[in-house]
């Protein structure tokens, strides 16, 4: 049975949460000191604690996990191993109407070649041109690694 002593939870937001967001996600202790010192005019009397957790504050306190650094380079010379990726379609399109990005990265020097493409089917021709250019300049690509995209 319902008893009048039970609390009724509503979708109403507490004033403390509202002022927490208005004042740049200030913590509750700082808000209390601000009110007691009467530094800011117009802040009403607020409750001391809140049960809600601010999504923006919790997201800002998350720690990003770093990738493990590779202690050694797998290749011994330039163009021995080339990583290849095709990304897209990207939005918004470029001014020239390009919507795909074709990237080649040399594993030894981490030198990067980037080509912007209109269609995904243009990737093979772009790779052919880059491979011929690298063959003339540096001696050619030995091995390619991709994500099978």
UniProtKB/TrEMBL annotation:
<dbReference type="InterPro" id="IPR036397">
    <property type="entry name" value="RNaseH_sf"/>
</dbReference>
<dbReference type="InterPro" id="IPR025724">
    <property type="entry name" value="GAG-pre-integrase_dom"/>
</dbReference>
<dbReference type="GO" id="GO:0015074">
    <property type="term" value="P:DNA integration"/>
</dbReference>
<protein>
    <recommendedName>
        <fullName>Integrase catalytic domain-containing protein</fullName>
    </recommendedName>
</protein>
<dbReference type="InterPro" id="IPR012337">
    <property type="entry name" value="RNaseH-like_sf"/>
</dbReference>
<dbReference type="InterPro" id="IPR039537">
    <property type="entry name" value="Retrotran_Ty1/copia-like"/>
</dbReference>
<dbReference type="Pfam" id="PF13976">
    <property type="entry name" value="gag_pre-integrs"/>
</dbReference>
<feature type="domain" description="Integrase catalytic">
    <location>
        <begin position="73"/>
        <end position="149"/>
    </location>
</feature>
<dbReference type="InterPro" id="IPR001584">
    <property type="entry name" value="Integrase_cat-core"/>
</dbReference>
<dbReference type="GO" id="GO:0003676">
    <property type="term" value="F:nucleic acid binding"/>
</dbReference>
């Amino acid at each position: 049975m319902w008893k009048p002593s039970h609390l009724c939870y509503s979708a109403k937001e507490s004033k403390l949460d509202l002022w927490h967001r208005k004042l740049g996600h200030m913590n509750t202790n700082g808000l209390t000191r601000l009110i007691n010192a009467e530094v800011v005019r117009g802040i009403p009397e607020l409750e001391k604690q809140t049960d809600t957790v601010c999504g923006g504050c919790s997201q800002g306190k998350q720690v990003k996990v770093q990738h493990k650094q590779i202690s050694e380079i797998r290749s011994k010379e330039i163009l021995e191993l080339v990583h290849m990726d095709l990304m897209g379609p990207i939005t918004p399109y470029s001014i020239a109407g390009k919507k795909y990005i074709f990237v080649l990265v040399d594993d030894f020097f981490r030198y990067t070649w980037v080509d912007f493409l209109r269609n995904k089917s243009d990737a093979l021709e772009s790779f052919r041109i880059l491979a011929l250019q690298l063959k003339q300049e540096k001696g050619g690509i030995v091995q390619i690694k991709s994500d099978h995209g």
